Amino acid sequence: MKSDIFANAETTQTDAFTLQNSKMLKVRIGLDGNPDTVVARQGAMIAYQGQAQFDYQGAGGLSKMLKQKLSGEGVAAMTVSGQAEVFFADQAADVHLIYLEGDAISINGKNVLAYQAGLDVDVHFVGGGGIAAGGLFNTLVSGTGWVAITTKGTPVVLSTDAPTAVDSNAVVCWSANLQTNIISSFKFNNLIGRGSGEAVQVGFSGQGWVIVQPAEFDLATANQGGTNTSPGGSGSSSGGVGGALGGLLGR
Known about the structure:
By secondary structure, the chain is mainly beta. The protein has a single domain (8-247), classed as Mitochondrial biogenesis AIM24 (Double-stranded beta-helix, 4-Layer Sandwich), CATH 3.60.160.10. The protein contains two helices and 15 strands. The strands form two sheets. Strands 1, 2, 3, 4, 5, 6, 7, 8, 9, 10, 12 and 15 form a twelve-stranded antiparallel β-sheet that branches. Strand 1 and strand 2 form a beta hairpin.
């Protein structure tokens, strides 16, 4: 039998986190000294070989649970344990790997695919103003280990040497040491359908970087779906206002 498709053979790399291709993540769990547990977005598993168990992942304490419930931000996650090679994807989005070395990144919850279980994950305010002042929410990941994120298309990494503003629906993640503020360009014309459509941006300053994807989240469907809680499937979406403003605005 002959076909070009057979060129897409499984990668033989033995690292804990590996890109099978630009759309697919391969995680080795409990093999070759790799950790026996990983945390992934619910519904993101597309295949596995070996013995794997999928369990609901809680928020990790009462305070974290309350922040997730109040903000609508955070990742609907599952723990995957055992001895297996597990493949993850999210609606054929591009997958990228980031290795944290005792530092932290702030990620839009919609862009989190998987991360090593030893990392600390929490919800934090963006802009420092809280809900009353129009503050947004994001997912803070810190510690040492791998994080897999997704983007809709090939992203750009912007240096923040100069003050930088990013559409809240297109921002993916940024180095957590940056100072942030919410920039609102809302005008009366927005009420009568003549606004620019760029009502809210996130401003950044300091030494660091921001990752921006070449697409915005579809606000028309962001609040329609719940979360696919089964391990199988090509991805999931979080309902609520966590989907509005690119999954950043708290409900």
